[in-house]
């Protein structure tokens, strides 16, 4: 086994170390996934695709996330670096693939930042409407000027908290995450109570068949459900981008990633079973197959399930989207910091706030780009905005898949004679990475259909496909501009391509 050459750029970026422990990392990971916000929009479409097999799809979607997380954990143990996908892929495959992996992460996070801000606006005015009893207030979110202005305020507040570093982030997240989890569990218990006392619309008993993925009607429906599952689990990798600021940089982030995914799958299954038992999957009334309520399941079910305290669910989704809006800044800011640090972006991106020891410049840029994107798309068309978010799944599958395969290639040969190492550094990330890249290709093919997403098209090609491919193509263009301006990184002068060394393996064993 050949050790990798020494890097010519120090890995230290000036971030404050030891700011977050295991619990804080898990809380921030859960907040980025945003269970309340994610479930209210995902439960309906997923149930519509797979029917009562919703729990099975949630479990199957969990598998590639777990497999990829094992690869992330191995890479972090060997190379704890805030650049994660960018740094690790550059080390394994070289600067070109590493740069595009980093771009995929940046594109996904910027897209979701804009969507989170938009959701926060919708539920902010819905909450005010419920509190005051004035339905007209909820309609303010449909006013483009009011919507964009409010969105920019939310974005600025989230940016300000993130700029102040992980200490400020952690305090905010403890409150917001605890609130949304408590409300979700309250909702689930209340739904089960209605089922037991016979007052639920469907009143279904939990059926073991719900957990059988082979019961899904067709492969197309199965693939659709899995694509949605990939989205609802996305965000756990934020705990890895904090590795340089976490107590126990080689071990804590990996453990936090696995703990985050495990906690989320338990929460998702609990809510899925509660909603299925209460509502069923019918296409009328409160059934999950009713197209009229699928965009916002909790808005439709909160009243019937929770009664007079239904406003808590609106507050929960608002808290969820606001919490995720703030914590999602962590990933793009630290990825851009690493790219600036290693010379893949202009040096300004490597600036760290002396006061808060956070990537201040990169955080502000993330907020500015996401705000401009949201404002432009919201003015053009809400359909375009949502189609762009649909392209998010392509970006997630791309950069997760690249990172997982980077683990396999970086640790190639190091697992000889060690079954545990083979499973964690080769087989698990290989299967997870291949699955996600297959989903990436399948989504790209499916999205060429003009009926995909909102049904918008350009010259007969689906808008979701054009947006997804357009984002990746833009990344290639920017990459070549950076190559002309900063060739050192692309010549391997700042991150040297290599493979695992004995020191890397010792670090992983100690974790």
What does this protein look like?
The structure is a single chain. The protein has 511 residues and is mainly α. Helix content is 70%, strand content 1%. The chain is built from 21 helices and two strands. Strands 1-2 form a two-stranded antiparallel ribbon. The chain starts with 21 loop residues before the first helix and ends with a helix.
Mean pLDDT: 87
- Kindly, what is the distance between the CA atoms of the first and last residues, rounded to a whole number of angstroms? 21 Å
Tell me the major beta sheet.
2 strands, antiparallel
Based on secondary structure, the structural category is: mainly alpha
**Envelope shape:** globular
Q: What does the oligomeric state look like here?
A: single chain
Count up the helices: 21
How much β-strand is present in the residues?
A: under 5%
The helical percent reads: 55-70%
Strand order of the largest sheet: 1-2
The beta-strand count equals: 2
Order of helices and strands: HHHHHHHHHHHHHHHHHHEEHHH
The rounded Rg comes to 22 Å
Low-confidence stretches: 1-7
Which helices and strands appear, and what pairs or packs with what?
Blueprint: H1 22-33, H2 35-50, H3 54-78, H4 85-93, H5 95-132, H6 135-138, H7 144-163, H8 166-197, H9 219-233, H10 238-241, H11 252-279, H12 297-306, H13 311-328, H14 330-341, H15 360-380, H16 382-390, H17 392-410, H18 419-446, E1 457-458, E2 461-462, H19 463-485, H20 487-490, H21 502-510
Antiparallel strand pairs: 1-2
Helix pairs in contact: 1-8, 1-11, 1-13, 2-9, 2-13, 3-9, 3-11, 3-17, 3-18, 3-21, 4-5, 4-17, 5-7, 5-13, 5-14, 5-15, 5-17, 5-19, 7-13, 7-15, 8-11, 8-13, 9-17, 9-18, 14-15, 16-19, 17-18, 18-19
